Amino acid sequence: MTPVKQFLSVDAGTTIRSSFSVRNDTSSSRTVMFSVEQFSVADYTYRYTFQPPANDWIHTGATITTLAPNEEMNVPYAISVPAHTAPGGYYFTLLASTTATAQGLMSTTQVADLVYLTVTGKLTTVSHLQGSSISHLVFGRTISYSLEPVNTGNVYTFVYLSGHLSGLLVPKPETSTAHILLPGKVRTLSSSISSPILPGIYHATYGYKTSTNWVVQQSAWVVFIPPWSIAVLLAALLLGIRFYYHRKPPTEES
């Protein structure tokens, strides 16, 4: 099923039209049924949850069809939004389902197209951090951090995590790929900053920027101790002890 996601905008009181494609990649004919659900996500994990739609905004051009092996079908659909609908995000799932029987057991296969629908108007994408953490003592090549942003607006937004260190010979700032935030939900996001070359105490700044340029940042001190610096320190200590005993004058015997 393609696409797997669609981002659409529509004015209240109007209709928008789009489509999706379904292909039968099996070696036998399949009866495919089309349906619509609404989706949301769970806090922190962002696991998708689905439920019957609370409205009848979406109407597909077909409810059932039979696809021959390797046959593909384009299915049009329309979204009609009632007048006076509140601006913001509304989230739907277009489902294509088929059943098959093997060894006496029946199984259902579903594929989905997630529709992120925005009803235009006064849209807000304000967000803030519910929590954050960073590794304060680091030995490896990366400094891990996590953020728990919550979208307090009325429409989805994309966030881009970034982090950097202040000091000499530190890596350039790094930005992660886009992550989506749905309204009213907390999401746990993790990323990392490349460790510096030299051991020491560094000031780390990490956070995210939204697709509407809303910036949220945190800062913390990080102690970086690479394994090679420990080996150098032990080697210097052993050399110092050896030098001390080598220079120490022998005691006189009575």
- CATH topology of the largest domain, which one? Immunoglobulin-like
**How many E strands?**
17
What percentage of residues falls in helices of 4 or more residues?
under 10%
> How is the main sheet built?
6 strands, mixed
The radius of gyration is 29 Å
Domain module tally: 2
Poorly predicted runs are none
Helical segment count: 1
Q: In the CATH hierarchy, what is the superfamily of the largest domain?
A: Immunoglobulins
Shape: elongated
The CATH architecture of the largest domain = Sandwich
What's the average pLDDT?
91
Span between N and C termini? 96 Å
**Strand residue percentage:** over 45%
Secondary-structure-derived class: mainly beta
Note down, in words, how this protein is organized:
The protein is mainly beta and 254 residues long. The chain folds into two domains: 5-119, Immunoglobulin-like; 127-236, Immunoglobulin-like (Sandwich), CATH 2.60.40. Helix content is 8%, strand content 56%. The chain contains one helix and 17 strands. Strands 1, 3, 4, 6, 8 and 9 form a six-stranded mixed β-sheet that branches. The protein has a five-stranded mixed β-sheet with strand order 11-17-16-13-14, with no helix packed on it. The protein is elongated. The protein starts with a strand and ends in a 7-residue tail after the last helix. The model has no long low-confidence stretch (mean pLDDT 91).
